Every structure is written in C-alpha cells, then in structure tokens.
Amino acid sequence: MVTTGRRAARSSGTGRRRRGLAAAALVLGGLASAALLRPADPAASAEVAVVGRGTVEDTVTAIGKIQPRAYVDVGAQVSGQLTRLHVTVGQMVRAGDLLAEIDPALQQAKVEAGRAERARLTALLTEQRARAAFAEAQLARQASLRNSGAGRGEAYDQARMEAHIAAAQVEATQAQIRQTDSTLQADEAQLGYTRIYAPMSGTLIAVDARQGQTINSTYEAPVLMRIADLSAMTVWTQVSEADVTRLTDGMPLYFTTLGHPGRRWTARLQQILPAPLKPAASGTGGSSPPSGSGGSANSVVLYTALFEVSNHEGDLRPDMTAQVFFLAAAARDALTIPVAALAPTGGAEERHRVTLIGNGGAIETREVRVGVRDRFNAQILDGLAEGERIVVGWKTDDGRPPKIGFRL
C-alpha cells in the first residue's frame, strides 16, 4: 500500500511537470505569434522613390516620312527612242545640264517641211504683191481717164475690182505665213524637246528610263527621272485627330530616325494642312506627297503636319521614317517624381497628394503642385524638396512589388 501511494505521488508530479512545460510552450508560442502579428514598420513595405532633378517633356508623338524639300520629276514631251542617257542615279547635276536625248528624226522632218512651206508662201507673197501693185497702177490710169472723160466706166470698175482682189490675196498669204510661222515655232520647240536638260540643280535620286527605250508621250508625259535638292528636307508627319488640336504653328519639335537612334534633329512646326490628304492615284509619277502622309487608315483620321530641316551633312535620305516629338511643354533641371506617386485631391488640376517617408520612418501625406507631366514623371513646382523620399506603391503580402499603373 505504501509502495502504491509513492508510485501515485510520483506519477502525479510527473503530470504536473508535463502540464507546466506544455503551458510554457503555449506561452512562448503565443508570444512568437504576437510578435509575428504585430504590424511591421510601414516604410519597410513601401516602394520608395527619391525626389530628384531632370527634364520633363509633354510631347505629342507622331510618325513622319522624310522627303526632299524641292524636287522635280523630269519627263519627256515628245515620243521616240531614247538614244542617249547621259546621267546615272546618285549623280549631281546643275540646271541646264544635258540629261538625255530622244531620236529627233521625226521632229526634224516636221521642221524642214515647215520651213519649206514658209519659203513657198514668201515667194507667193512676192508675186501677189507685184500683181497688187500692177492692179493699183491700172486702177490709177482708169481713174485718170474717167476724170478726163475719155475712159469708160466699165473699165474703171474692172480695174478697181482687180486691185481689191490683189490686195486681199496679199493679206491672205500674209495670214498663211503667220500660221506657218506658228506651226514652225511649235515644231522647232518639239525638236528642242528631244534634248532633255536639267530644270534644277540637285541629285538624281531615281532614273526610271533606259537607253534604247521607246518613249510614248501621246497621252501623258512619261517620267524619266527625279532630281531633288537634298540640302534641306521636309518631314510629312501624320498626326491623329485626337492630338492635332494640341499643335500650333511654330511650336518646337525634335525627331529621331532608325538609322541614327542616338541623334536628335530639332525644328519648328511650319504648317498643318487643313484637311486630310486623299490617297494619291496610281500612275502619278511620284509627283504627289508621300503615300501615307495623311488621310484615313482603319477609321483613324490623320492630319498632315509639315516642317523643314537642314540636311547639309547628308545624313537624312528620302523616304526615311522619322519618330517626331512635338513639344507642347518642357521643364528642364526641374524637381521630378514618378507620376505613379501622385494622387488627385479633387480640387485644382495641378494639385495632388503624395505620401512621404520621414527620416524616422514616419509616414505623412503632403499636398504638392504639379507642372509639366509626361507618361512617367511629373514636375513638382512646390511642396517637395530634392532628396525627400516618397511612396510610389506598396508591396503585396507575398513581398512582391505591386503592379503600378501610370496616370496619363
């Protein structure tokens, strides 16, 4: 009985120790859970950006095509075989240089025939003038005889008629000579057109004809080549109807090209065409503005904005694509923050709220005034100082950065 009592007492003490250890474990677990559930430092879960300085540009972007400012399509005004081609693509020419020659045989024959006809009419006019002079003399004699009473009235009338006929024949021949001169002048001009000269100085950027080719100019003048002045270029820019109202004549702009991605060309907007351009009809010979420079594509109305840029270095070439940025507003060396940090206040458009993190990690909200904005950054006019830390977003529960949506 004594042994059984000791065993029971020992067993009871062991149970109490086990229950004490379990209770202690529960307490420690609770403390650990409380530590885990305690709110962490808010700054630790914030995506932070530092107020810095930079350039903010509010731009209207568009795509443009680069074309020569001045160019001319050289065509043929007469038909015939192209017997000589004196130039090649890429060659520099001056105004008045001989470019090509067309077989002049047909035009030369017309000129010779016209000259022969004029010579015949000139001889005929000499004969008719002699007859007119003789008829005038006869009329004078008959008039003298009639005045003296020795002549007959019938003879006088006959002489007067012949004098008038002779004078009319002279006038008719003179009119024929004038007509022949006009025809001969046109034929000589056509003969001159068999030699094609450069109408302006520039570079041959295209030659569409080949030596020995037969040229037919009966219905329209075929284009043989294009001469362009590449010292200055015009950029034909497509601007959507949503953005064209933001453009003004004279506003600054810059553009880049695919071939020179690190270089900017600057210029000023010169003209906005009042209506979208209609698509150029086929067979125009390239004399119309570049295709795609305006009009409607997929129900999007595009207006054409034009500006010129110097090209003395020759880096810009016809039909290059330009990424154009029209500067509606710009701020340089300005205090900037990400647009994602801005929250509207519901008041003035330029007033926004931002969340800051102080030096001690305290979170505060401050109202700021915003100036120029682009898609990513905004200029701060007042309310923040350089170097202050602002909250752009908050991390998710799994520690990943949030998906930030940029406000436009």
From TrEMBL:
UniProt GO BP: xenobiotic detoxification by transmembrane export across the plasma membrane
Ranges where the Multidrug resistance protein MdtA-like barrel-sandwich hybrid domain occurs: 72-223
Coiled coil keyword on record: yes
Keyword Transport: yes
GO MF annotations in UniProt: efflux transmembrane transporter activity
SUPFAM superfamilies: HlyD-like secretion proteins (SSF111369)
Annotated GO CC locations: cell envelope; efflux pump complex; extrinsic component of membrane; macrolide transmembrane transporter complex
Location of the Multidrug resistance protein MdtA-like C-terminal permuted SH3 domain: 333-393
Keywords per UniProt: Coiled coil, Transport
TM ranges: none
Domain of life of the native organism: Bacteria
InterPro entries in the record: MacA_alpha-hairpin_sf, MdtA-like_BSH, MdtA-like_C, RND_pump_MFP, TAT_signal
Pfam families noted in UniProt: BSH_RND, RND-MFP_C
Cellular compartment(s): Cell envelope
NCBIfam families in UniProt: RND_mfp
Sequence similarity: Belongs to the membrane fusion protein (MFP) (TC 8.A.1) family.
The protein's name: Efflux transporter, RND family, MFP subunit
